[in-house]
Amino acid sequence: MLSSELFEIVAPAFCAGLMIALTHAPLGLEVFKRGIIFIDLAIAQFAGLGMVAANLLFQEPAWWTIQIVALGSAIAAALVFRITERIVPLEQEAIIGSSFVLAGATALLLLANQPHGGEEVQHLLSGQILFVSWQDVQFHAPVYLGILLLWFGWPNQARKGNLFYLLFAIAITSSVQLVGVFVVFASLILPALASSNSQNRVISAWICGVVSVFAGIGVSAGIDAPTGPVLVISYAIAAAIIRILTAISNLRYSRRN
Q1: What count of other Cβ atoms lies within 10 Å of the Cβ of residue 254?
Q2: Residue 58 sits in a domain of what CATH number?
Q3: Residues 6+ apart with CB under 8 A from 7
């Protein structure tokens, strides 16, 4: 009975984690390639700020209200970053980092006098993936599927210009609601780091993400620890192992040739 109840809790969490891992891996590779590492943190923070603002501005807002405000905030930030890429490319990373701090500070101010402000901040940063329901999975699954179809079906369009920033903002808006800012960053950047020297970077990044999700959620559920932090650590360990194994494999290959 207990195992059945546990499965009902972790099954949608596994699905959500896998959707995020599979979508974030190629997006993270593009972010890594562009050298705008902190764009994920910044856009995630703006999406979170939109969620906070929606809950404060509207009394018991409908889910679609929160979605619109959060997505609008993320897209606005993404468009600003797109403009800075075109106008002041050398200063873009500094602007992105400053924007992250600004959005975070604003969210803290909005929540400062709220009775459950501390809980809201924790939820925003580390998420509550074990509370994800099948309804959440069904709502967000088409978002991730659509992004992947565009990314691999029309790569020349999806990975360039305004569309890249738009797709990135849409993905992050969904992900930050499911897993929080910390896991969003880890699932984008650590698989990209893990696959830096791999022959097939997308496959290596996907492997890193999938292994991290299964290990992180499994360990978290097994020891009753906060899932968000455990997932971040899981991503870090998986990335380090893959990076080491890739280095060993490349060394053996170079010696043979």
Answers
A1: 8
A2: 1.10.3470.10
A3: none
What is the number of residues in the chain? 257
Question: Tokens standing for 232?
Answer: 């971040």
Residues 6+ apart with CB under 8 A from 91: 84
State the pTM of this model. 0.88
Going residue by residue through the chain (257 aa), what tens digit of pLDDT does each one get? 446 666 777 899 999 999 999 999 999 999 988 888 889 889 999 998 998 888 888 877 787 888 899 999 999 999 999 999 899 988 988 999 999 999 989 988 888 877 766 677 777 777 788 889 999 999 999 999 999 999 999 998 898 888 999 999 999 999 998 998 899 999 999 999 999 888 899 999 999 999 999 999 999 988 888 889 999 999 999 999 999 999 888 887 777 76
What's the number of domains the chain is made of?
Answer: 1
